[in-house]
Structures are given as C-alpha cells and as structure tokens.
Amino acid sequence: MGKVFITIxxxxxxxxCSPFSWSQTTSEALASSNSESxxxxxxxxxxxxxxxxxxxxxxxxxxxxxxxxSVLRVSSDMNLQFSPWLKIQFGPYASYYSSRVQNRFKDDSxxxxxxxxxxxxxxxxxSGLDLKxxxxxxxxxxxxxLISSFRSFPGALVEYENLSLKNVAMxxxxxxxxxxxSSLNTDRQSQEALPTFxxxxxxxxxxxxxxxxxxxxxxxxxxxxPSKVAYESSQxxxxxxxxxxxxxxxxxxxxxxxxxNLKGNYTFESGLNLGLxxxxxxxxxxxxxxxxxxxxxxxxxxxxxxLGLAFELGSFFSEADASIxxxxxxxxxxxxxxxxxxxxxxxxxxYQFYVVSKYAxxxxxxxxxxxxxxxxxxxxxxSYEFQF
Length: 388
Prior knowledge:
Order of helices and strands: HHEEEEEEEEEHEEEEEEEEE
Shape: globular
Mean pLDDT: 87
CATH topology: Porin
Strand content: over 45%
Strand order of the largest sheet: 1-2-3-4-5-6-7-8-9-12-13-14-15-16-17-18
Radius of gyration: 23 Å
CATH architecture: Beta Barrel
Number of domains: 1
Number of helices: 3
C-alpha cells in the first residue's frame, strides 16, 4: 500500500509541475503576441458550488456528565474543474455552538470550529479511475462504528469503478491516510512514528426498477497510534495497557481486521420504500470477546405531494477493542457499547427544508470506571442545497 501511495504522489507531482513549465513556455511566446492571442490560450475553467444551512439543538447525558447546545452549521460542496481529467473538490464548513457542558474529561464536541469535510486534488487519467490526494473524507467506509463519517484524514485514495455494466456499479477502493491528532511534548515521551490508517475494499451496487442492493467488503489496519490518542481512546472504551500517565499511554492490542456492509431497498407500487441493512467488522488482533462490532437496521420512506417521511430504527453493539475509540462515532458512545437508535427525517417540500431528529441510547457492555450509560439526541432544521 505504501508503494501505491508513493506512486500516486509521483503522478500528482508530475501533474502539478507540468502546468508551471507549460506556463513559462507559453508566457515567453505570448510576450510578442497581441491581446487576441492571450484570449486564445485562456484555460477552460468551470466551477460548481452548492450550500446548505442547518440549525437546531443537540444534547447528551452520561452519568454525571451532560450537555445541551444550540448550533448553527453552514456547509458547502465545491468543484473546480480545470480540465476533463483534473479538478479540485472541497467541502468547507463552519459550526457555531452556544452550549452548557459538564464533562469529566476534555471534550471538543460542542466547540465552534471551521473545518473541511474533504479537500483533495482529483486526477482521472482514464474513465472510471479516480486518484485523490489531500484531506480524504471517511464517508466511503460507510460504517460510523469503525470510523466516524465526520472524519477526514490527509493522504491518498485510489478508486476504480467499472462503468460498462448495465444496472451494476462495481469497483475497488484503497486508501493510505494519516489519522489527525495534535500532541505537545508533555503528551509524549519522545518523537513518535507517523500514524497510519489503511483500507482496501470491493464494492458492488445493483439497481433494478423497484429494488436496490448495496454492498462493500474490505480490510483495515491502524498503526503507530500516538500516546495522546491512546490515552483518550482508553477513556472512550478501548482497553488500556496502562493509563497512569498520558505520555506513556499505549493500547493493549493492535487494530487490523475486516469490515462489511450490506443494504437492500424495495419500492412498492404505492411509493413506499422499505429497507434492511447490516454492518459488521472485526479486529483480528484483539481477543474474540473484545473484537467485534455490528449494527442492524430497518428503514421506511414515503413521499406525499407536500411532505416526505423517512425513518430508520436499529440496534448495535461495539466491543471494547473493535476500533480506535477516539475516531469512532460519539453518537453511538464510541466502543464498549450496546444500544438502540432511531432517526427521522421530514421533508417539508413547499418550503424546501428538512426536519431531522436523532436519538440513541448506548449502554456499557462491560463496566469500566471511565464510562456510564449514554443518551444523546439532536433536532435540526436543514435547508435544501442551494446555489448563489
């Protein structure tokens, strides 16, 4: 995988250097030409931008910890197309919180921030093949218990999708990224090795008139987890090898294994859409009793003339060392959890906005001093995507 990463960077380096050499040669030629010549070499550049705004409330309760917040989020998806084979894609966002929080440990869940959901240079040398380098969104894993869909890590992603098959989308993905973290000298004993997160997966989606099947299966591996991340992960559910000193902390087991997702939807003649799904993964470096995670869910969706309704109801568990707790979804209580959740989405069509509500209850699997039973909720009003 490291060789793939180096190859990608090499290709992108050549790609980035080429425009500069072209520009220098062109500028010399244009020095003796008129303004009409300048217009003739103007690059073919297009851009697409969509925005969305949401506001509402979020809250949680875990033992003596609790929090309640109002939040405003502004997000965008931007696509700058330089040529048919080269573009820059990025998704900036801003989240502003007004909150009251009581925590045993430092937590940034309700801190206002500016960030990037993703930001990468995309090269498409042939149809169906994407080479991406930059901040890679982890949404493509599609399993919040393995890694939160809000995470984006610097690195590279290769994706190939076969576009020649009717009703079938199938392909492969491989990524080599660096999990984000920030440590002071007091948070570590010495300079630490670069952490990495690698995944390789196959995906297959099949669509017919009334039903759709989506599947993905792959391998994952974490390595060189910083002591600060290990310390915070032990507070969020992982089994610590030691927890007396943050600078000396490390996790007891390695973290590599397999993951798989399967989801099916069927649409009846009445327009009612029903779905079932399951997501599971396992850390093969951990003992059997600590290694597995699973989520099973059902969904229903129906659209009236002026109102759309969608619901999802599911149950889940995530054993203590299934994944790196710091990077998993806090809405499901990170690791060492079992529970249920429900999500509802109401599409108010005449006014072009959604009302989205979520509730989750995540109890401890094994009692540890750092955790307690958790409840979390959110109620948000979200606009349709718009342009201006």
